[in-house]
Amino acid sequence: MMSIAKGTLAALLAVPAMVAIPAVAHAETPPGCGSAVQIGSTAHIRHDGQTFASVKQFKGCGKNWAYLFVWAGYRSSHRTWNACVAVADNSNRTLQGTQCRTQKKEIWSLGANTLAHCTQAAGWIPNGPRAMTGERC
What we know:
Layout: H1 6-14, E1 37-47, E2 50-60, E3 63-70, H2 72-77, E4 82-89, E5 94-102, E6 106-108, E7 119-124, E8 130-132
Antiparallel strand pairs: 1-2, 2-3, 3-6, 4-5, 4-7, 7-8
């Protein structure tokens, strides 16, 4: 379990998710899990005047998963980028399964044993903008 300072999680939780029309999951499948379904809304991270990434939360294989997809328009106009994704466990105010990557168009969190908790998917650019999906309990 990865604990973070209360102020950091509070800052993530305080930023309202940029919500678009809920999307149906297509080919997104967590690594090592054969089947998952999106839960809650899709959030979007905006950076440099354009949509940087979509953030989604999934449930499957007895776990919650966070997913971040960097949009093609951003990838084509930027040589490099960093992004992180995690499941925010609102029951104990921690981030679970955090994964950060450089120049990856898709990032999955590790699976979080949080199905019995209220959670959100959190995605962010280190030291930059962030977004969170709606809370699911």
